[in-house]
């Protein structure tokens, strides 16, 4: 059998990937002031506002959707180009929490969103082949029981995700009504 996966040591919690989705913004700001609530022994847990300009304006984004620009073309664009704010921000996030696809990348990014759909608290999973993430979602579902917490699998066999959370080795989105 192969070597066990290395332990998860560095976790980021993102809010404000979309600046008008306020649950994540509120929680991240709360945890920035009350960090003891999310700290765990042997782990670094970093609460982070992903799109501060959009949060300040309470708008989804400034120039383009931050949750769609974490692809090699955008991450590789040069500073000299006149690039959209969110592309520049994606590059900054990739420097802090990545680089995407590298051993240095954060182990997990938990990206908090809101939706207008009446779906309650829902976990979004992009890979059914990531054992750690599946075990973590199972743990979360048990911890929330008897409250419903569906898991939505949005796996695509050939699509390379360009979401904010795709910078990490393991990716999870959490959506709240």
TrEMBL record:
<feature type="domain" description="Succinylglutamate desuccinylase/Aspartoacylase catalytic">
    <location>
        <begin position="8"/>
        <end position="170"/>
    </location>
</feature>
<dbReference type="Pfam" id="PF24827">
    <property type="entry name" value="AstE_AspA_cat"/>
</dbReference>
<dbReference type="InterPro" id="IPR055438">
    <property type="entry name" value="AstE_AspA_cat"/>
</dbReference>
<dbReference type="GO" id="GO:0005829">
    <property type="term" value="C:cytosol"/>
</dbReference>
<dbReference type="GO" id="GO:0016788">
    <property type="term" value="F:hydrolase activity, acting on ester bonds"/>
</dbReference>
<keyword id="KW-0862">Zinc</keyword>
<protein>
    <submittedName>
        <fullName>ACY2 Aspartoacylase</fullName>
    </submittedName>
</protein>
<dbReference type="InterPro" id="IPR050178">
    <property type="entry name" value="AspA/AstE_fam"/>
</dbReference>
<comment type="similarity">
    <text>Belongs to the AspA/AstE family. Aspartoacylase subfamily.</text>
</comment>
<keyword id="KW-0479">Metal-binding</keyword>
<dbReference type="GO" id="GO:0016811">
    <property type="term" value="F:hydrolase activity, acting on carbon-nitrogen (but not peptide) bonds, in linear amides"/>
</dbReference>
<keyword id="KW-0963">Cytoplasm</keyword>
<dbReference type="GO" id="GO:0046872">
    <property type="term" value="F:metal ion binding"/>
</dbReference>
<keyword id="KW-0378">Hydrolase</keyword>
């Amino acid at each position: 059998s192969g070597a066990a996966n290395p332990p998860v040591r560095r976790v980021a919690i993102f809010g404000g990937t979309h600046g008008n989705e306020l649950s994540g913004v509120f929680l991240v700001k709360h945890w920035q002031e009350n960090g003891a609530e999310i700290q765990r022994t042997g782990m670094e847990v970093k609460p982070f506002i992903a799109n501060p300009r959009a949060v300040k304006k309470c708008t989804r984004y400034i120039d383009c959707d931050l949750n769609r620009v974490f692809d090699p073309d955008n991450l590789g664009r040069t500073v000299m180009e006149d690039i959209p704010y969110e592309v520049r921000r994606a590059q900054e996030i990739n420097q802090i929490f990545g680089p995407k696809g590298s051993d240095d990348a954060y182990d997990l990014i938990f990206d908090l969103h809101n939706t207008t759909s009446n779906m309650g608290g829902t976990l979004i999973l992009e890979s059914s082949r990531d054992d750690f993430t599946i075990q973590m979602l199972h743990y979360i579902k048990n911890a929330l029981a008897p409250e419903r917490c569906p898991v939505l699998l949005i796996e695509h066999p050939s699509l390379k995700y360009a979401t904010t959370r795709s910078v990490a080795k393991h990716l999870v989105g959490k959506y709240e009504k």
